[in-house]
Amino acid sequence: MQVRIFRAAIIIACLLCLFGSQTLFAKKMYRWVDDHGNTFFSDLVPPEQSQYRRDLLSKSGRVIEVTEKAKTKIQLEQEKRLEELRKEEEKLISNQRLHDKALLSTFHSKEDLLMALKIKLQVLGKQKLILEGNLTRLT
């Protein structure tokens, strides 16, 4: 009885190893399209085709992973410039937030801000009148 169970266990283990190993040894499948619109499927990507965008496919043909097309020097420079512009934009936005926060902490409402602006304009108007009076007196 134990011999039969042992043999059955060995046979089952061998079958599991046999069927399990097929998935382990399954090769990767790639799909890519060249400049002329030709679609290629292969387990290896030739070096002359490696600059194209390619998809790694599962056994069922679904896309698992995407490798983007190789970028040219111009595209790399453009991406670098865009990244610099994004950083500058982030700096401007953070500075604007700081100024907005200071403004909001100084004035409690829109009316307070307008009143301060009105007073400042009145002061500037008075200073202008004084300077004009001094100018006419000197002439």
Task: Note down, in words, how this protein is organized.
By secondary structure, the protein is an alpha+beta fold. The chain has two domains: 2-67, no CATH class; 73-134. It contains three helices and four strands; from the N terminus they run αββββαα. The chain has helices spanning 2-24, 73-106, 110-138; strands at 29-33, 39-42, 54-57, 63-67.
Task: Offer a few descriptive terms.
3 helices; elongated; 139 residues; single chain; 62% helix; four-stranded antiparallel β-sheet; alpha+beta
Could you report the average pLDDT, rounded to the nearest whole number?
Answer: 83
Q: Tell me about the biggest sheet?
A: 4 strands, antiparallel
How far apart are the termini?
129 Å
Alpha-beta classification: alpha+beta
* Cα gyration radius (Å): 37 Å
Q: What is the count of structural domains? A: 2
* Tally of DSSP β-strands: 4
The succession of helices and strands, N to C, reads HEEEEHH
The fraction of residues assigned to DSSP E strands is 5-15%
Low-pLDDT residue spans = 21-25
Shape estimate: elongated
Strand order of the largest sheet: 2-1-3-4
Q: Please bin the fraction of helical residues.
A: 55-70%
List the total number of helices. Answer: 3
